[in-house]
Amino acid sequence: MNIFLRNGLIFTSILLIAGVTGCSKDSANVEDEDPDGDITLSLFGADMHSQWDNMDSPVSQIVKEETGVTLNAEFDVNGGDQKISLMAASGDYPDLILPKGNASTLVDSGALLDLTNLIDEHAPNLKKIYGDYYDRLKWSNEDESIYILATPPVDQTYWQPGTGFMLQHDVVEELGYPDIRTVQDFEDAIKEYKDKNPTIDGQPTIGLSLLADDWRIMISTTDPAAFATGSTGDGEFYVDPETYEAKLHYRRSEEKDYFRWLNHMNDIDLLDPESFVQKYDQYLAKISSGRILGLIDSDWQVGEAQRSLREAGMEGRMHGMYPVTLTEDFKHPNFQDTGYLGGWGIGISVDCENPVRAIKFLDYLASDEAQILQNWGIEGEHYTIEDGKRVISEEEMDERDNNANYQKQTGIGVLKGFAPAYGDGVEDSTGQTYTIASPEQIKDSYTDKEKEVLGEYGAELWKDLYPQEDEFPAKPWGAAYNMAVPSGSSLELTLQRCLDIMKRKIPEAILADPNDFDKVWDEFMTELEGAGVEEAEKEYTELIKSRVELWGGS
C-alpha cells in the first residue's frame, strides 16, 4: 500500500499505470440533480483518518458554508483493498472515492467519471494548481481520460526526511552522540544502551521493533531494505535508472545481506519477538510507552506515538531520524526527486448525482482561500494579520505542536488530503507561503531535546544529516508505487502471489536460526520464480517505460 507519502503521503504498493481503457461515464453527459441547494456527498477513503471531524469543526463549517457541501465519510483501516473490490463487484459506489492503490479496479469496472470536461468547465483552481503537471493526470497512453485528481502537494520542498532509522534521543545522549551511519552503528548503539538499561519505567527494554501488520509490512520491514541499500521508494520494485528494468527489490543480493542483518538482530535478542504478530495499535502503544529504543519506519506511521511521547513529557524517549544504510558504500535516497506524482488521489463515481457540485467542491479546496484556510486556519482565531503578513502566535503554535487533537478540534488540514494542495515553500500572490512550513517553523517546533541532539551532530534540521536532493538524478518515472496494475490481469495475480510469498518468507528468514537463513532465503527465491516473478518483472518494465513516455517532457 505512505507515504507516505512518500514523506507522509505516503505509502508503498505494487501498482502501475494501466494500459487499458475504462468504461466510465463521460463527464460531458452528466448533470446535477441538485445544482443549488445544500447537499451531502458520500466519501470513501482507503486510509484511516484519525483526525476526521465530521465537518463539525470551525474550519470545516466554513467549507460547508462556502460550498453547500457536507461530506458523509467512511475511512478504512485496512487499506481499502477488500472494500473497493466489493464496490466493483456490486456496482454500488459512494460519490467520492480516495482509492489509494486501487484506482485501476474502479476504472476497469467503469466506476469513475472521466473528469476532463468537468475540470475544463467548472474547475479553474484545479487547472491552476496542477499547472504544467496537468498532463500527468492522464490515465495512460491508450486512455487519456482523467479519472483521478492527484492529491500529493504540488512543487513541494521537503525539509524533513520521511523515512529512516529512528533512535531515541536518550540513547545517543547517554552514549556521547556516536555516529549513526550504518546498520552496525545502529546495532551497536542499541546494544550498548540496552545492556546498561535492561528496563525502562519497570518494563523490559526493547531494542528494535518492526511492524508486519498486513500491508504495513512493506513500510516497516521491506521498504527499508531498499532505502538501506541505496534504492529509492518504488514500492516493491527496484527500477534500474538507465534501462528502466524492474525487479522485485528483495531479489537483489544487497537486500539479502540487509535481511541477514535483521536475522542477526533477532539472534542476539535485539529484535522485538512480537514484531511479526503485533497489530498496529499494539505497536503504537508500545512506542508510546517509551521502551522501544529503535524503529525503522516512516514518519507518518509512527507520528501519533511520537506525539503521545511528547504530550507525556517524555521528550528523551522520542526518536530522531537517521540516514542509516547497510554500509557506507550506499547513500540513503530519501530526498531523491520524483517530480510531481500523478496516480493516487480522489475520483468522482458514476453514481454521484451531483458531479458538478462535487467538482466545484474539490475546486474550492484547491482555491487560494481554501488553501490558506486548510493551512493557517481562520483569521482572528488561529492567526492574525500584522504588516500585511499572516502571523501565528506562540501560544497557538505551541497548541499546534503539542495538542494531538489540534487538527480535529480546529479543522485545520482535515480536508487537505482530499484535493491537490500547494507544497511547502510555494508562495501565494502576497509573497507568503501557502503552508506554514519553513525551516524556521520546523526548528521552532522541535523540542529542546531535539535541538540539543541535532546541535551535537552539527545540524539544525534532521534533513541536514541526509544526502541532499542534488546528489541524485531525478526519476523520470516518478515512483512506481503509485501506478496502477490492470485489475484482474495476469500481472496483478502474479504480483499478489509474490506478495503473499513475501509476507510469509521474509519473517521466516528473519526469525530463522542463522545457520538456516540461506536455506530459507533460497526457498523464498525459488517460490517467487515458481510464481512467475520473472515474467511479471518483464511486464512491469514495459509499464514503467510506458509511464516515462506518457510523462515525457512534463
UniProtKB/TrEMBL annotation:
Protein name stated in the entry: Aldouronate transport system substrate-binding protein
Domain of life: Bacteria
InterPro entries associated with the record: Bact_solute-bd_prot1, SBP
SUPFAM superfamilies found in the cross-reference section: Periplasmic binding protein-like II (SSF53850)
Cited PANTHER family: ARABINOSE-BINDING PROTEIN-RELATED, DIACETYLCHITOBIOSE BINDING PROTEIN DASA
